[in-house]
Structures are given as C-alpha cells and as structure tokens.
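ok so heres the complex, two chains, lmk if somethin looks off
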Amino acid sequence: MNVFRHFLSAVQWGFLAYFVVLNAIYLGLAFIAIFRLRRYMGGMSAAERVYSHLQMPVSLVVPAYNEAQTIATSIRALLQLRYQHFEIVVVNDGSKDDTLATLIREFEMTPFPEAYRVQIKTKPVRGIYRSLKYPNLRVIDKENGGGKADAANAGINAARYPIFYVGDADSILDPHSLEHVVRPFLEDPRTVACGGTVRIINGCKVRGGVLEDVGLPANPLALVQVVEYLRAFLGGRLGWSAINGMLIVSGAFGVFHRDTVVEAGGFRADVIGEDMELIVRMHRMLIKRGQRYRVAFIPDPVCWTDAPEDFATLEKQRKRWHRGLGESLWENRELCFARGSGAAGWLAFPFFVLFELLSPLVEVVGLLVMIFAFVLGMISGMNLLAFVAAAFALGLMLSTTALLLEELSFHTYPKARHLLVLFLVSILENFGYRQIMSIWRLQALYGWVTGAGIAWGDMKRKATWQQQ
Amino acid sequence: MIVTLAWRSAEVAALASAALLLMSLLVRRYYRAEARRNERVVALWRPLLTRVALESGDPPTLPRLPGSNRPYLMEEWNALQDALRGDTGERLNAIARSLGFDVAARRYLHSRQVGRRILAIRTLGQLRDPSSWQPLQEQLASTNSLVSFYAAAALVRIDAQRAMPGIMNQLAERESWPAEAMARLLVDAGADVAREPIRALMLSLAPAKIPPLLPWLAHVDAVLGSEVAIELMRRHPNDAHIVAAALLVIVDPNVLDELAQFAESKDADVRQSLAVAYGKLGALRDATAVTHLMCDRVWWVRYRAGQALLKLKGMTADHLMALRAQLPDVYARDMLDHVRAEAAIP
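and the predicted structre for the whole thing:
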C-alpha cells in the first residue's frame, strides 16, 4: 500500500508540474505574441503603404477530389482575390464525380499541350486544360492516388511562380490574404514558408464565396473550435514564429517557396499530416545544410475554414491530426537537439513531443489514477477537485489570453456579446469536450505506435457557405 | 502541500482569467472609442482640409483641436497630402503649422509606438521643414527598417540632393530596406536629382545588393536602367545574379552579340534571362541562338526561349514550322507546341 501511496504522490506532483510547465510555456509564447502583435499592428498600415505596389507572383494550387458541387464556387472566390499577379492551378485528383466536367463547363477549359515538367514524382497526369475565359486558370487532371499530397505535388510541378499557396477547396480566403502573406517573403528573402491565422467560417455570412459578415456558429462543437483555433493560432504559432520555431503551417492555408519545397521532395503521400511533415522536413534539410531561413507566420485572419459539426467527423479529424503529428516528429527525429537547429530543434521539437504528442497520455492516465485513488479512498474528494480545478483554470487562462490577443489585434468578432460567449465556451469546454479530445488523441497515439490502421472515410463538412 | 499548491494554482489561474477577460473588454471598449473619435475627427476636418487644399484665398476659421485628436487629424492630413500635388501642399502645410503639427510631430518622434513615430516622420517630411533635418537623420539610422525607410523618404522631400549621401550609405549597408520601394522613392525624388546619384550608387553597391534594384530602376527609367545594367554586366560578367538581372532590363539591341556569351552560362537564371533578352531585342538572324536555348535542360529556359522564338522580329508561321522540323530535341518540340498553343489563346 505504501508503494502505491508513493506512486500516487509522484503522479500528483508529476500531473501538477506537467500542467504548470505546459501552461507556463504557452503563456510565455502568448507574451511573445503580444509584443509581436503590438509591433506588427503598430507598423501595419505603414508597411502596407510601402509594400502595396510590390506584388510577388503567386501560384494557387487547389487539389480537388469529388468536389463537383462546390468547385465552381471555390474557384470563383479565388478569382476574386485582390491581387494583381497570380495563377490558379486546380488539380483534379481523378475525381469519380463531375468535378472535371464542371470545371470545363464553368470556366471554358480547353485541352492544352503544356510542356509539363516533373520535378516531384506523382501519379500520372492525364491531361492539362487551360481556361479560355481566365488566362490565369489551369486544370491538371491526374490519376487518383496519393491523396491531397500527391495532388498538391502535381500542382507544384505545374506552378510557374516562385511562391505557391496550397489550401483546402472547402476554405475561403480573405480577399486581401495574398497581399498580407507575401509580405514576409518580400521583407526577408530567406523566408521559405508562411502560415496565417485560420478562422472558423461556421456562423459567418458568405456570398459568392466572399465573407460578408463575421458571426459565431450556433453549433456548440463548432463554437468550441472557434476558441481552439484562436488559442492555437494567435497564442501558439505567433509565439513560435517569433523565435523561428514554427513546426506547423496549417493545411488550410500555407504559402511556400517553390524551389525549397521541390528540393525537399514535395509533400509526402505516405504520411497523414503532410503539411506538418513538410515543414519539419524543411527545417531539418535547411539546418543540415547550414542555410539561414525563416518559417514565418502572419496573424492576419487570411483563411476561413469549415469546422466539423458532428462528433464522428471531429473524431476523424482529430485522430488524423494527432497521428500526423506523431508521424511528422518521428520521421524527422534527427531535428531534435540537432546541432545548430536553434529554437526549432531545441525548443519546439521537444515541446511538441512532450506537451502535444504525449499530452493525452499524461492527461488521461493522470486523471484515471486520481479517480482510481479517490475510489479506493486514498485521496479525498477535495484533493481530486483541487487537481481538476487547477487543470481547468490553467486551461481557461490560456483561452482568455487568446481572447485578449484577438482584441489587441484584429477584433474580428464585432460584438462584446461574442467575447462573452467565447469566454463562457472556454469554461464549458473543460466539462467533457477536452476529455473527449484527450481520449481520441490517445487512441490515435496508440494506433500510431501499434501500427493499427484507421479507416478515415470521408470528412463530412456542412460547408453551407458554398451553397449560399 | 501539493493539494494546497493545486488550489493556489487554480485560484491564481482563475483570477488571472477574470482579469484577462476584463482587460479584453476594456481593450475592445478603448478601440471602439478610438474608432468613433477618429470618425468624428474625419467627419469634421476632411471637408475643411479639402477646401483649404482646393481653394486659394483666406483659410477658413478652424475649429479647436484637442491634443488627443491631433494624431487622427495628422493621419488624415497626410493622406490628403499624398493624394494631392502642386501648391495645394503648401496651403495644407500652413494649416498644419497653425495647428502645431510640427511641434507635435517632433515630440511623437520619441514615441515607443512605431506607428506614431512613422506618422511623425511622414508629417515632418510633408512639412519640408529644414529644422527637422537632424531628428530625421537620427531616425534614418533606426534599427526598424520601416522607420528608417520613412525617414529617408522624408529627407528626400525636404532636400533630395542633401539627403542622397546619407541614404546611399544606408542603402549600401542595410539588408532590411525594401529595395524596390527605395529605388522608386529615389526616382520619385526627381530625375535630375536622382539620376547621377542612382547611377553612382548602383555602380558602387555591393554586388549582392544590385539585382533587386535593377528591375525597379528600369521600370522607372528604362534607358538609365539599361545603361547601368550594361555597365554592371561588363563589370561583373561572372556574377550570375547580376548578369541575370541585367539581361532582363537591357533595351539596347546593339549589345545583343555581346550577350551571346551567356548562352553557355552554368546558371539557369542567366540562360533564361538571355532567352527573354532575345525575345525583346532579337530578329530572325538570332533564331539559331534561340533554338539552342530551346534544347536547354531547364524547363523555364526552354519556355522563355520558346516565347522568344515567337517574338523574334520577322518570324512567321512558316519559319516556325521549318525550325520545329529541325529541332533535334523532343522537349524542345514539345515546348514549341506549348508556346504556340499558348499564343493562340485569345
């Protein structure tokens, strides 16, 4: 019994220390983000004046699979971007529906004898089309296989410009997003990738693929994700980018230096989190070579994405993300504590292993041990409550910091009521939602470690904005 | 003890959360109030400033301007100054002085807010007050590249000739200045003032600094750009970055034979730029040189060479078909088909 008491004491200390350290790091990142934001916002209009006439050409790579219903709206929205010099490369990944026919019909696509260059190997390309209506629109029709990564690689092969964007067809871009996102590339030519803040589109009003009014979703699951996204993007990523330790550029919105990506071998089709894996691999490649580089992040809300509104879809998404995280870190483990790897190898990588990858293990096991000890009468109800309260309150503090960052920067949500609702959601998410997330992530971790396959199925998104 | 610690952590975190929420609400309130105040200032002053700018004669009676509203009006005034040209600027400057903008701007130069400092620098530049020279020179040396850029622009407005040496020094040393914007600013200073300093600058810059500046120079003054490019290309024939940039801005067909030496460059950017130069300046007699580039191993060189082939002066469809038949390389033939199809799209 004594042994178990010692074990229990160790678990209690470990549990508390883990949460305190985790939240302290996140708070540290949030503080870095506050200073970064103040500087960014202070010079923003001045920078816009200087850079407004400098527009680097950008290729927009849009992988599409079975998106006949929505592809025309998505492409029309992209064509409306306020930017002078960009091309759109839609990659039809062997869709079984009428995606290609829709594109041909809606945009007057015609077969084109393009001298297509294969710099990254992909599944065979069946044909290339060019729009008679929009000279900057092309479609690459390729055989299915290799998922979004393979389709994106085919698009990169066809991309003409030095930097390219790749995102999801079910997201919409802010009309000024390209103006914002090219700025890090203009300011610092060492920039190899840049991410931006992704927001939840559920609850917003969209017309013709363009965001008109910002609002909060009515669906509680989507509402919690609004807080999650704020926490992840404004607190975490902005902080990591300030010290060049950003290991993730969101799959929904990422802009990359084409030649560097080609050199790195493009997106890997054999991993699940291809977006994160590519960034970690680029860090590893560039550090190994001793090249100075920067992975940037801009806090501007550049992309709005559709959040899952049912548990089944959310579960798939989160398991996929967590497994992708594990794969990305494992496949590039050489980066961890590598000589000259700076913040990426010495801070971000170990942090992601300890506090992101393994966090569900600590959270679930810690909670189970405490409950077990409580049931056995080894700790009192008040003791259990103290630990749960500490974990909840620390989490709440992080969420509220993200809300403050939002107010200090873009105050996207127009009404004070929105802020209060988000604060309430930050409290409520502790009762069930976070625990469910931890369990799903733990299952994904277990599945990845044991090599068990996951049947992903199709991601069910409502994407109501597409029909508006 | 550990339980106490857990409770304390929870208490501290909960209190901090409440404080952060309160702060968020206050920040929101503050920004809202600021936005409303800005709207009020603009609504009151924009018609007055526009009238002053557009109508000569006695200035209208100005309303009282509380100090807290001054930055908003300064921003509006700067925007109007940027939009207008001619002697309207002088009338607006007189108004600004009567409102104490010069004194306030010098005070704002010491602000910790970058935006406020830049506003002050822009204002002093618009006012063209020689007494602001020294403080603006200090801002020119700022570690913040935007602040120093705006200081350079302000100095150019006050006295372009006098500003040049300091700006040239900064331009040669700074990596963080937006080079293209700077080149444009120098040319905006006036061709007479800037032409020689720019030429001298371009020829004295460290080689790494030259390539991004050349396209902008050419964009604003094509002949000057071409002259400088030819000289730089002759000075640095082995610097691929300079040669590649120079080839793109040369507009003198007389040097085309001299450029042919770069067809064997190891750098693909140089070969690609050469193809572009052929397209811009070449004629039928250059077709052999261009078809040679069409067999290049790099896609972009082939693509640009293909485009160049179509643009050669005197090129006809029959010539193209004959050239296609002679092309030894399947990739070159594919590329020719590609560029012809592309050119056929209306």
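quick notes: DSSP finds 18 helices and no strands in chain B. thats all i got rn
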